Amino acid sequence: LAEGMHRIDRSLTFHAACRPDELLERGRVAELARLGLRSVFVGAESGSQALLDGMAKGTDSSNALDAAAVCAEHGVVGTYSFTCGYPGETDGDRAATFALASRIKALDPRNICFLEIISPVAGTSLFHQIAESDLGLDTAEAWSAVTDWKTARGKPWIEHPGALEAFQLAFLLSFTAPRDAKEARLRGPVRWGQRW
Asked: Taking the model in full, what pTM does it have?
């Protein structure tokens, strides 16, 4: 598809959504960049291998950093999505996620890393784990109250919702806003909420 688009109009550019392990081959990323790939959205999820294993992500915690390095090498900017708020998640898990986002941002200052507070999606292992627990989520209405990925409040498996929301805010301030005027010029104009 990218090859066909490129033959029609060499000025066309595109964005892609990828798993980290899909961006590890330098030759593939180089070819896509040549064909117009300018940015990627990557579901990194966590810097904690234990959390990645628990969600059955099927990737290694180093994959997101390796993918970011390959993308930076070929001028492809990334938006990296992280999540927190898992049952049993520790301060160490969150520290590993923050450290990974820091390293990704350092590879290319145009990269954006953002964090959302997990909400169980039907059919996932997290959904089944929470559904089988005694948290009072036994009606559709109760489940609908925990679907907001921007807040920890009302999610009975989260012990300290305010602390988790503070972590989310720190993440936002650390990894989405340009650090200085030079970085702002590199990134170009960005509307609030724009993730590409």
From this structure: 0.84
